[in-house]
Amino acid sequence: MDFDFKKPTHLFALIVLLGSFLLFIGYPLISLFSTSQTLEIYNQSMTPFQKLVIEVTLLFFQLFFVFVGLILVPILWYKLVNKISLKEMFTRLNLRREGFQMAILWGFITIIIAFAVTITIGLIYLFLTKTNPNTLSNIPDLQQLFSVPSLYLLVTIQPFCEEFFFRGFLLEKIIKISNPTIAVVLTAILFGISHLTYTYMYTAIIAVALGVLFALIILKTKNLYSTIFAHTIINIASLTLYLFGKSFGM
C-alpha cells in the first residue's frame, strides 16, 4: 500500500480526500434529516441582469466544487501518494483510447438497461409508497436556481466528474484493498448517498441501482468512456423528457 501517515504530502492528500467525502457524501446524509427547503434566492424586484449574475455565480461554484472534489482530489492522490505518471493514472482510471468504439456500444446497451431498471424501480416505488409521481424528480428544485441552458450544462459536465471519481478512482482503490464485489456495492451505495441532497429517497435508490450497473459495465469493458457516455446521455434524456412532459402539462 502506497499511503504512509508519516509523509506530510500523503496526509494532505488524505485531508483533501476526506473533504471531498464530507462535501459529496457527508452533506447529503445531513440533508436527509433536514426539513429545510430550497432557498428562494430570486425575487420579482430583481432585474434580469441581477438574476443572470446570481445564476452564473451559482453555476460557477457548482462546477468549481464538482471539479475540485471529484477530479482534482483524485489526481492529487495519484500524484502525491501513488507518484505515478499521467499515462499510468489514465490506465488505472480505465480512460483508454483502445476499444473506444466498443465502449460506446456498451454505453448504448447500458442506456437501454438503465432506463428499463429506472422504470421498473419507479413503478415498484410508486406502488409501495403511493407517492405522487410529480414529486419524484429533483429537477423542479434545480429550476429554482438554474435556467434550462444551465441545467443542460450541468447534466452534461457532472457525469464525467462523477464517473471519474466513483467508477474510476474509488472503484480502482476499493478493488485493490478488497475485491470487485465489495467495490461494486460500496461505490454504488456512496453514489446513491451523493444523490440525497434534495432528500429524495427515490433518487438515491435509482442512483444505487445505476451505480451497480455502471460498475459492472466498467469491470466488463475496462473502459470508463462506456459509462461516461451512458451517464451523460441518460442525464440529458431525463432532463429533456421532463421538460417535454412539463410543456404538455404532464
Order of helices and strands: HHHHHHHHH
Strand content: under 5%
Low-confidence stretches: none
Mean residue pLDDT: 91
Mass-distribution shape: globular
Structural class call reads: mainly alpha
Helix content: over 70%
The total of beta strands comes to 0
Radius of gyration: 19 Å
Number of domains: 1
Number of helices: 9
Largest sheet: none
First and last CA, distance: 54 Å
Describe the structure.
With 250 residues, the protein is mainly α. It has one domain. 76% of the residues lie in helices and 0% in strands. It has nine helices and no strands. The chain has helices at 8-32, 48-82, 86-92, 100-129, 139-143, 148-177, 180-193, 201-221, 225-247. Helix 1 (8-32) packs across helix 2, helix 2 packs parallel to helix 6 and helix 4 runs antiparallel to helix 8. The N and C termini lie far apart (54 Å). The mean pLDDT is 91.
Topology at a glance:
Layout lengths: L7 H25 L15 H35 L3 H7 L7 H30 L9 H5 L4 H30 L2 H14 L7 H21 L3 H23 L3
Helix pairs in contact: 1-2, 2-6, 4-8, 4-9, 6-7, 6-9, 7-8
Defining key terms:
250 residues, 9 helices, mainly alpha
In short:
This protein is an all-alpha fold.
